[in-house]
Design a protein that fits this description.
- The chain is mainly α and about 160 residues long.
- Helix content is about 60%, strand content about 0%.
- Helix 1 packs antiparallel against helix 2.
- The protein is elongated, with a radius of gyration of 26 Å.
Length: about 160
């Protein structure tokens, strides 16, 4: 593989190999690229899942704050608005028949679980189950052998 840079040679610097991130023998470029894209898709899904958990917590906190609003309305003599708030909004399903925890659980147990399982299966089929092969090869192409802090493996 072509390496970038022309740093000074350091005989001990570039010794070592990371088999956990190396392309299995005979693996075509397209398989490495496909596995990399599958992993990238999963990473994006993980971010979406985090946003879903943010949604869950933000809606829950907003609902809890409405109790304070209703209490303040009661103390201010706005009984009609307080009653409407309590009857129409506080504790209401965010989707028909569901609170946010149920949305999170359904997502986790359905789409998310299937996605993760198929990504792992895809990695197994495409690159022997290894993770981040595409990125490891990109890193290797961008390294400058011999430059401090740019070794093939962590120091240790």
């Amino acid at each position: 593989m072509e390496q970038r840079g022309s740093g000074p040679a350091d005989p001990g610097h570039d010794q070592g190999h990371d088999p956990g991130h190396s392309r299995p023998d005979g693996t075509p470029d397209l398989a490495v690229t496909a596995a990399g894209r599958f992993s990238e898709a999963l990473e994006r899904l993980e971010r979406a899942r985090g946003a879903l958990y943010d949604f869950h917590q933000l809606v829950g906190r907003a609902d809890a704050l409405l109790d304070e609003v209703a209490d303040a309305l009661d103390r201010l003599g706005h009984d009609e608005l307080s009653i409407e708030l309590r009857e129409r909004l506080i504790g209401r399903d965010v989707l028909e028949g569901r609170w946010t925890y149920q949305i999170v659980e359904e997502f986790d147990d359905g789409y998310y679980a299937i996605f993760r399982a198929l990504e792992a299966k895809g990695r197994q089929v495409l690159v022997g189950g290894r993770r981040h092969v595409y990125e490891a090869e990109l890193r290797e192409r961008r390294r400058t052998p011999g430059r401090p802090g740019d070794g093939p493996l962590p120091a240790g």
